[in-house]
Predict the 3D structure of the following.
Amino acid sequence: VAGAAQSVLLRPPPARVDGMRIAAAQLSADRGARVGGDLYEVVATEHGLRVLIGDVRGHGIGALGTVAAVLGSFREAAHDEPELGGVLRRLDRALARHLGERGAHDDSAEDFVTALLLEITPDGEITALNCGHPWPFLLCDGGVEPLARADPLPPVGPFPLPGDLTPVRCGVFLPGDVLVLHTDGVEDARDPAGRFFPLRATLAALADRLPAAPETTLRLLFSALLRHTRGRPADDVALVVLRNDRARVTCGPLAAQASDQGGAAPGTRPAAG
């Protein structure tokens, strides 16, 4: 039953979407269950590639209803809403309706969701809205950095969304770069001695293997996590790995013009700071 539910709600993303190669997987903390409270989706739209990763309070079969409400709303709003803020507001309304239908006497009616929304334009520009979720890591040029360091908004559900939902500009996702999105069950995973999983150090070791296939990166990450926890993660875990397989933009008159004007040419990474 759990496997059938997962195949409908948390369907695996296509291996390639809009020039991106993708791998994703989820691991439930409930022994014997194959679904949990973590969720993800990748959708190619006329507004750009849009990505959602989130974490419902709680895990296991009890979280499935909330997962369904959030994913269903995102799959429609990602196509309908021209702005990322509009997508987030649709998710917020869908979650409020879902929790309201449960009734005030249901403890699970107080659920909330951490959520990260990303938009990647055809030229690689990344913008994001983060509601209480861990920032992804960007693997590029043999290094590992958080995609952004801005303070996130509160999780979706407990508090009204602010009036201004201006997405955070996160730079450029260049051909060959890799994004690793994760839920907090990854960074919070502990070994028997209580030590946290060294996610950034593990990613740094994997960065030296680029351009590895996203499936390989995903498998190596899960293997390292399960070794660290002795096969017993305390929380649900989800990972999404995206590699930009788009063709690199060829430098030409436009690139020279951008350089003369002090800007970055398309397909190049702007200088930091």
Q: What stands out?
A: Residues 85 and 166 are 7 Å apart (CA to CA). The first strand starts at residue 16 and ends at 17. Residues 84-102 form the longest helix (19 residues). The radius of gyration is 19 Å.
